[in-house]
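Hi Q.,

Before the meeting this afternoon, I wanted you to have the adenosine monophosphate prediction in hand. No need to reply - just skim if you have a minute. The sequence and ligand are here:
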Amino acid sequence: MQVKAPRGTYDVLPPDSKKWQFIEQIIEETAHLFGYNEIRTPVFEHTELFERGVGETTDIVTKEMYTFQDKSNRSLTLRPEGTASCVRALVEHSVYGGVMPVKWYYSGPMFRYDRPQTGRYRQFHQFGVEAFGSHSPYLDAEIIMLLVQILHNLGLIDYELHLNSVGCPVCRETYRQILITHINPVKEKLCPDCQSRYEKNPLRVLDCKIEDCKQAITDFPFIFDHLCDNCKQHYNLVKSTLEAGGIHYLHDNNLVRGLDYYTNTAFEIHIPSIGAQSAVGGGGRYNGLVKACGGPDIPGIGFALGMERLLLALDGVPEYKEPYSSLDVFLAVLDDKYDVQAMQVLERLRTAKIMADRDYTGRSMKAQMKYADKLGARIVVLMGEDEVNRGFFTIRDMQSREQLEVKSEQIISAIKDILA
Ligand code: AMP
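Predicted structure with the ligand bound:
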């Protein structure tokens, strides 16, 4: 019986894995430039962490978690996102007792039982950053600048940055009441999800993607018009800092994060060219989350980028060149009696950090040259009777097609000269 990968998952084979490495490298380099260091957390956690940290009324928790009992009857869940684990680690290791702000990034697989489609998977990968311990609006701006710089460094310039403020628990509570009074008369027109959650979580109705819900709320008041002075000032400073940095954004009244611990800045990055699932990343402030997860009252802010959607976006960039999978040296072995010596030569090359390979399937000389071409070898080193007996190697530069002979002990420097 043939076993296939589970629905909503996929394999990344070479050469596509090169693209992943390229994206990961750029993202990590950019995060380091901004002073963020890596945190690695487990792929599964106690279920209650996500119930509290992601929110019991969210789709993720109510419908999408991969939850299972382990052999000791503990309820565990494959992580659906990265923030809750970072908060848990911050509290568990009392990291907040040290130097603030704490600036972390993470990357890895996340799991959500959602309906698979282009850009939406059940195992997908996120890169995210979190910064804890500062209320400064300039940190909000920095986080957004990091996100934008990552896109630029990847060559992705056709994006839309959506921005809003969801206020603080005080001004949001006033708005929440106003919102409920507006929803009540139209609630029959809302989708079943919005109908069932609107009393607990009315802000979610604002960013529901169902057309009927969008229609029903068109003349609703905006949270932006109900922000308190502090929240308005915070938002204005974030915006003016982005403007000073030449970062273009769209104020988006319907961009909300419904849960109580989300505060102030909320943002999303869209790349419209990738299709219906155009959000490549999103984030915001969550000043109440650390406390909700059993820690002290410490503010936080972060974002997560979806790697699969970045890959989709990169496919649409004409200047994007696939990272070339090439080989420095192909060692063509002309007789199997030199196999052991060939392995010694390969060892010398690789120890000198020269990427080298050979044939292991008994190809003829001609077939080995074809194979070397296929591997993208820059240089072919020939190893036959002549070469071994005389202590010389014949080196063929595959670009210039020139051939030269070098003494065995000079092979490394000769190859490095060509590669330089
Ligand atoms: P979220 O954690 O829901 O705010 O998502 C942040 C980013 O992760 C999104 O903008 C997407 O790029 C990506 N993402 C979320 N869910 C999925 C999924 N099921 N498949 C692929 N990417 C996803």
